[in-house]
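Figure 3 (text version): structure tokens given as input.
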């Protein structure tokens, strides 16, 4: 009985309180991140983009190694790239709270986010005052869910193509890849088949044995020129469907 009372006291005092879910708490970054964020606000105010890609460095890479593929597949569709390298779900949430999509009424939003939630686990984060970062598959999925909720509020007429987080690491046994897969299994359930659609194209990038090659992802995380073309080809039928082309 004494132990139960002690445990109850500790719980009430906060000693046993659960760790915060960083993935759902909006937070900004600094440096060049702010400038890029503000450029998205400017695009939003113009209100002309029909198709918007939203995510992290893999999405931002459409302006780098994916540039030629972007020009072929998306320039004609009046697309905008709202990807920022290093972003996690909480950074995207902050962006949405601070101007991204204000005035913008796209037909389709392609969202992929979460691999940095996985990849930053155990690392101190400057924007969290040096706190050691943690984000389980369940917590990351909650962050993705929160982003979708904000998008539905800010762009209620837009359809959302939610992509499963791409595979990372050379082999299927890679711990970060496995966490991404666990996150994907949860966020797949966010699709309603009407406004929110889910696609997991991860196998597109893998060998039959599940190996990820450096030809597709040179650092086993970010796509090569070939990888971006594979991405575009894999989702193009769905893009056409959702845009009503």
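Below: residues designed for each position.
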């Amino acid at each position: 009985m004494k132990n139960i009372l002690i445990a109850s006291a500790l719980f009430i005092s906060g000693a046993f309180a659960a760790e915060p879910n960083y993935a759902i708490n909006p937070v900004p970054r600094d440096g060049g991140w702010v400038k890029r964020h503000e450029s998205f606000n400017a695009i939003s105010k113009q209100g002309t983009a029909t198709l918007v890609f939203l995510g992290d460095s893999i999405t931002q890479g459409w302006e780098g190694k994916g540039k030629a593929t972007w020009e072929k597949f998306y320039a004609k569709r009046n697309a905008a790239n709202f990807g920022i390298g290093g972003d996690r779900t909480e950074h995207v949430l902050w962006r949405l709270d601070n101007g991204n999509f204000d005035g913008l009424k796209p037909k389709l939003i392609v969202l992929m986010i979460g691999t940095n939630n996985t990849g930053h686990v155990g690392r101190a984060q400057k924007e969290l005052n040096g706190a050691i970062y943690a984000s389980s598959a369940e917590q990351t999925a909650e962050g993705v869910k929160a982003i979708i909720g904000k998008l539905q509020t800010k762009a209620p007429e837009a359809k959302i193509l939610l992509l499963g987080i791409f595979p990372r690491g050379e082999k299927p046994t890679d711990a970060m890849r496995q966490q991404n897969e666990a996150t994907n299994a949860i966020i797949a359930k966010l699709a309603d088949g009407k406004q929110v659609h889910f696609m997991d194209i991860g196998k597109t990038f893998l060998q039959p044995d599940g190996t990820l090659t450096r030809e597709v992802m040179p650092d086993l995380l970010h796509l090569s020129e070939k990888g971006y073309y594979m991405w575009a080809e894999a989702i193009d039928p769905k893009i056409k469907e959702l845009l009503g082309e």
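Residues 225-243 form the longest helix (19 residues).
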